[in-house]
Amino acid sequence: MAEKERFLSKQDVYQGKIFSVEKRQVELADGSQAQRDIVHHALAVGILPLVDADHAILVRQWRAAADDFVLEIPAGKVDSRDHGNEEEAARQAAIRELNEEIRFHPGSLTKFATVYEAIGFTDARIALYLATDMTALANAEQLPQDHGESLDLLTVSYDEMTALYQRGELNDQKTLTAYFYWTNWRLTNGKQSFFHPVTAKS
Amino acid sequence: MAEKERFLSKQDVYQGKIFSVEKRQVELADGSQAQRDIVHHALAVGILPLVDADHAILVRQWRAAADDFVLEIPAGKVDSRDHGNEEEAARQAAIRELNEEIRFHPGSLTKFATVYEAIGFTDARIALYLATDMTALANAEQLPQDHGESLDLLTVSYDEMTALYQRGELNDQKTLTAYFYWTNWRLTNGKQSFFHPVTAKS
Question: Which residues of B97-116 are buried (b: 16+ CB within 10 A; e: fewer)?
Fold first, then answer.
């Protein structure tokens, strides 16, 4: 039977700009002690934005952690601009990130999962969405981009994304998860069923 | 055009037991500077182990980062017991983790992706595998479990995993990705095609 660990003490060992680190001492079921290091991070959102049944918009940006450019679905952190309970704030963050990064507003936004990103060492979670029925935003509706954010936008077909996956070039987990979700949907429902007859801005 | 960031300097701000934290100063394309905090973590492996066409073995354990029990595919870090190049070491780690955690040896082990787990703040990557044609390990072949590792093993049917997903209880990203991969495979190839006619220990 899996046992719960008992919290003994903690020490805040680093306070960074986007995460903090806690060093926690716990007691195991056998009475011995263990150290657990935990990275605390805000809830994130990632969105698979489909412009039509066969095309998604992805972003390509420099990532310090990879020392390379990485191709990803649009994503970002829930922050103080996003209000309400967690569900509402995450939804607002998803809409805001689509505006900031790709300049579209989703007529339909469906959450398909909320998951821990790397449960072995961090409480970072990401809420994942499918965005469809998108309308392009006029200049006046566009929010300012984050400072230091330098993005390429790529419209990628489903077949191109499959080729990227097969070559091992889909190397970001949220993006892989979204690609698999898209694949499931196409196999189950046919590619047209994502789209509603009327494209209304909600 | 997305711009590369230029490395200026770094400071190692925390050295923990399973990760370290680097505070990096970079120069952006416009000449301004920015701070990037990066969690450095070893390569991890996660394995979807199928005992037959319709059943996987999952593990349930206490996770300090979630302050809760979490249901996951077997997983672990590549460590000094795993040799060779990255590909070989990851494969050995996957076989070792299946031994330590669920006491099975995979006759067939297929990598289906290697991905960054949370690219916004960490270089942590995970290699994901499908394990089939499994044989139970006798006592003498079983490796010792990690100290402090307390696991429940659950044999879960595909339909049960679908119900868990639909209720939002599949809250670990590697496990969700593996579930989606399993779904794709079943939809594309039929559920029997995972399995080979002869179950030989490789």
Answer: bbbbbbbbbbbbbebbbbbb
- CATH for B42-189, options being 3.40.50.2300, 3.90.79.10, 3.30.565.10, 1.10.10.10: 3.90.79.10
- Please work out, in degrees rounded to the nearest 5, the angle formed at the alpha carbon of residue A175 by the alpha carbons of A170 and A179: 85
List, for residues A76-117, the tens digit of each pLDDT value.
Answer: 999 989 899 999 999 999 999 999 999 999 999 999 999 999
Closest residue to A173, CB basis, from B34, B121, B173: B173
Rounded Cα distance between A171 and B76, Å, is 19
**SS3 call for A186:** helix
Residues of B in contact with A16 (CB under 8 A): 13, 21, 23, 35, 37
Q: What is the CA radius of gyration of chain B?
A: 19
The pLDDT value given to residue A156? 98
Q: Do B118 and A41 touch (CB under 8 A)?
A: yes
Which of A18, A24, A177 minimises the CB distance to B37?
A: A18
Model pLDDT for residues B102-121, shown as the tens digit of each residue: 999 999 999 999 999 999 99
Q: For B164-175, write each residue's pLDDT tens digit.
A: 999 999 999 999
Residue that is written with structure tokens 């509706």 in the block: A141
Query: How many angstroms separate the CA atoms of A121 and A101, rounded?
Result: 29
Q: Which residues of chain A have pLDDT under 50?
A: 196-202
Distances (CA, A) of B162 to B55, B81, B179: 12, 35, 8
Q: How far apart are CA A178 and CA A71, in angstroms?
A: 13
Tens of pLDDT along B14-71?
Answer: 999 999 999 999 999 889 999 999 999 999 999 999 999 899 999 999 999 999 999 9
Instruction: Check residue B146 and report its DSSP letter.
Output: P
**Cβ distance A170 to A79 under 8 Å?**
no
Whether B87 shows a pLDDT value over 60: the answer reads yes
The closest of A15, A201, A33, A44 to A126, measured between CA atoms, is A44
The structure tokens listed for A111 are 């959450």
